[in-house]
């Protein structure tokens, strides 16, 4: 029944479109009615219906007249020119042979067709010159100006968009109802294109203060979205709440709430809210099929629902990659070989700068992001142990890997960087993706998984949380599973960074840690760090610093001490001062004082940055952090001051010990 009604609506809409085109080509009522009597019965299937010929003619004439009477004519200053109704005694124009008063003139409750509906069609049919004339005459209905503006924005003409839409909002805003929401969104998009962010914010502030309920809701939604993009979820939540108060039955606000929760990876709550909204809109009789389908999917998997809801706007390359990832999900894990290494040299310890690595949240260097990740000072000999080996991919994937290397346009990131070198673009020559789609066995290659994850990090749309979850997580989790199969926890072997074939695997592990932190999974992130440290005891990525801070935040002081003992004389503040904090919290104050003295000799600036209530941020270099420098002290304060401050008396003790 629903499909039948949809088909009827589509046929009716096509009749209106074709009629408007005919009227524009020859704006003569008699000619149009003659054409309509031939076209409409076949287009709507009336000739094959149960209606007799007289009824078909009557219905055809009625519909054609409605369309003509609602069509604005360019030749009539864009106003309709309705057909005058015949007198009651005149022959009816439908051709029935009856007098008009006894035929079509005897119909009660004659339907009407909105000129706004016809205008929507006209905007797609009028040539640019005629459209400009309609705009000059202010003939286009205000709510439909957004459709023209959207087309101009697609043509990258944001200045014209602003000039067209700003007058709508120049006067009183109370009369602007929900029909003007598209104009608000497109005007904001145009401000973004022009980098007029102050103007956009002032505009939204005014709508929030003075607009109708529907427009206030739209403005608050826009502000919430801005805060989501910035990662400011507290402000995003405040704006969402204001939007909900303004228009509690608006489906777009339901979508915003699922978006906000999915962005924070609160999937369990997103599922619950999707159930709530699904029940509410069913009760209200809301029948938008695509939106209700979205809620159904969000109840099962909010992240996947977000990907599907944005599929039309996503880069088609990402959609193809998403399909490939779904395909390889059930693929068996490959068996990696392990080749023994001989003659390993000692670790290289940097004496100058600690180079930074990329990431977000929870760790000292992650708050100061460089272009990628450079070498962290490696651990000394005492941290090494077990048998060093080199990962060897299955023979079955070797040929595909070779072809892949010839197609993939970007080199590996430099050293422990996570980003490609400046100017490199993995997406400029996407032939590699076409090859990938036809070769699911490439999912068995850690080297290829590393390239795919690196490419995704470079893609601008990967900043969307649900894109990262849907594309990055499956690749990173597959790499994790491959490594767990090859090197389980009880295996005494490790894969040093110094062996080049091991680097993709270790980089994937570190990326997995960063992704888990971003998705609010600290316990899983700790396990990933522990595995990374087990597999690469020299710790080129600085996992030990991240792990130390996690242990201290979780109150795992004994584990923090054990980690510090694995890396004596470390140049990372997290290890040196983390040991002091752990000892103090365990009540071993004398030992803490002794360890503090050693830490101060190596890294003297940290105590001052921890004990001062206010201190000016030093200049931070994009190239790295200087051991013992002001920049290192500042970054450690940013990462761990709250943990130190939560321990009663320790900052006063630290200040006394360093006077």
- Helical run tally: 29
Low-pLDDT stretches are 1-7, 345-375
- Termini separation (Å)? 84 Å
Main sheet makeup: 3 strands, mixed
Widest sheet: strand ordering: 1-2-3
Would you mind describing this structure in some detail?
- With 659 residues, the chain is an all-alpha fold.
- The chain has four domains: 116 residues, no CATH class; 174 residues, Serine Threonine Protein Phosphatase 5, Tetratricopeptide repeat (Alpha Horseshoe); 185 residues, no CATH class; 118 residues, no CATH class.
- Helix content is 58%, strand content 2%.
- The chain is built from 29 helices and three strands.
- A three-stranded mixed sheet has the order 1-2-3, with no helix packed on it.
- α15 packs across α20.
Keywords:
29 helices, 4 domains, Serine Threonine Protein Phosphatase 5, Tetratricopeptide repeat, 3-stranded mixed β-sheet, 3 strands, 2% strand, disordered N terminus
Topology:
Blueprint: H1 2-25, H2 29-43, H3 53-70, H4 115-125, H5 128-136, H6 145-154, H7 158-165, H8 181-193, H9 197-210, H10 213-230, H11 233-246, H12 251-263, H13 267-283, H14 289-300, H15 302-309, H16 316-328, E1 337-340, E2 387-392, H17 395-407, H18 431-437, H19 446-458, H20 465-486, E3 493-494, H21 503-518, H22 522-535, H23 543-553, H24 557-566, H25 573-585, H26 589-602, H27 606-611, H28 630-645, H29 650-657
Parallel strand pairs: 2-3
Antiparallel strand pairs: 1-2
């Amino acid at each position: 029944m629903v499909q039948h009604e949809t088909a009827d609506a589509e046929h009716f809409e096509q009749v209106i479109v074709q009629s408007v085109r005919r009227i524009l080509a020859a704006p003569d009522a008699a000619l149009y009615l003659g054409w309509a009597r031939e076209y409409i019965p076949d287009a709507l299937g009336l000739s094959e219906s149960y209606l007799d010929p007289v009824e078909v003619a009557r219905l055809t004439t009625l519909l054609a007249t409605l369309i003509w009477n609602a069509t604005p004519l360019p030749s009539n200053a864009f106003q309709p020119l309705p057909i005058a109704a015949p007198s009651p005694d005149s022959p009816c124009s439908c051709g029935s042979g009856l007098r008009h008063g006894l035929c079509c003139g005897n119909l009660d409750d004659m339907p009407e067709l909105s000129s706004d509906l016809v205008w929507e069609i006209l905007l797609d049919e009028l040539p640019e010159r005629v459209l400009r004339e309609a705009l000059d005459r202010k003939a286009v209905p205000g709510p439909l100006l957004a459709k023209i503006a959207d087309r101009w924005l697609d043509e990258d003409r944001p200045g014209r968009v602003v000039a067209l839409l700003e007058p709508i909002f120049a006067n009183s805003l109370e009369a602007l109802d929900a029909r003007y929401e598209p104009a608000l969104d497109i005007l904001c998009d145009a401000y973004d294109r022009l980098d007029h962010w102050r103007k956009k914010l002032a505009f939204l502030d005014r709508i929030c203060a003075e607009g109708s309920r529907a427009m206030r809701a739209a403005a608050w939604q826009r502000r919430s979205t801005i805060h989501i993009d910035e990662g400011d979820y507290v402000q995003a939540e405040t704006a969402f709440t204001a939007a909900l108060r303004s228009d509690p039955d608006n489906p777009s606000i339901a979508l915003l709430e699922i978006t906000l929760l999915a962005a924070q990876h609160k999937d369990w709550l997103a599922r619950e809210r999707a159930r709530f909204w699904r029940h509410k809109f069913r009760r209200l009789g809301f029948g938008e099929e695509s939106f209700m389908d979205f809620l159904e999917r969000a109840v099962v998997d909010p992240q996947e629902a977000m990907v599907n809801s944005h599929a039309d706007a996503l880069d088609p390359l990402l959609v193809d990659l998403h399909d490939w990832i779904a395909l390889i999900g059930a693929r068996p894990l490959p068996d990696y070989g392990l080749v023994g290494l001989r003659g390993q040299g000692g670790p290289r310890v940097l004496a100058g700068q600690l180079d930074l690595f990329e990431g977000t949240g929870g760790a000292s260097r992650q708050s100061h992001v460089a272009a990628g990740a450079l070498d962290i000072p490696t651990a000394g000999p005492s941290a090494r142990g077990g048998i060093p080996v080199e990962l060897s991919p299955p023979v079955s994937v070797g040929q595909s890997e070779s072809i892949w290397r010839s197609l993939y346009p970007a080199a590996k990131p430099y050293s422990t960087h996570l980003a490609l070198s400046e100017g490199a673009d993995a997406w400029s020559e996407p032939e590699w993706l076409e090859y990938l789609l036809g070769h699911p066995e490439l999912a068995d290659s850690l080297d290829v998984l590393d390239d795919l994850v690196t490419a995704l990090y470079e893609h601008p749309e990967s900043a969307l949380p649900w894109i990262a979850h849907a594309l990055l997580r499956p690749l990173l989790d597959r790499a994790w599973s491959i490594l767990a199969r090859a090197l389980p926890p009880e295996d005494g072997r490790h894969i040093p960074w110094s062996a080049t074939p091991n680097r993709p695997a270790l980089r994937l592990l570190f990326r997995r840690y960063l992704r888990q932190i971003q998705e609010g999974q600290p316990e899983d992130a700790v396990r990933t760090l522990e595995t990374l440290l087990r597999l690469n005891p020299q710790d080129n990525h600085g996992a030990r610093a991240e792990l130390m801070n996690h242990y201290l935040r979780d109150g795992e002081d004994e584990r923090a001490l054990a980690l510090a003992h694995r890396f004596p004389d470390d140049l990372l503040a997290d290890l040196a001062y983390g040991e002091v904090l752990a000892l103090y919290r365990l009540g071993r104050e004398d030992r803490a004082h002794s360890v503090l003295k050693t830490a101060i000799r190596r890294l003297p600036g940290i105590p001052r940055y921890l004990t001062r209530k206010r201190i000016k941020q030093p200049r931070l270099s994009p190239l790295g952090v200087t051991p013992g420098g002001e920049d290192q002290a500042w970054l450690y304060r940013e990462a761990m001051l709250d943990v130190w401050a939560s321990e009663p008396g320790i900052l006063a003790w630290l200040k006394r010990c360093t006077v």
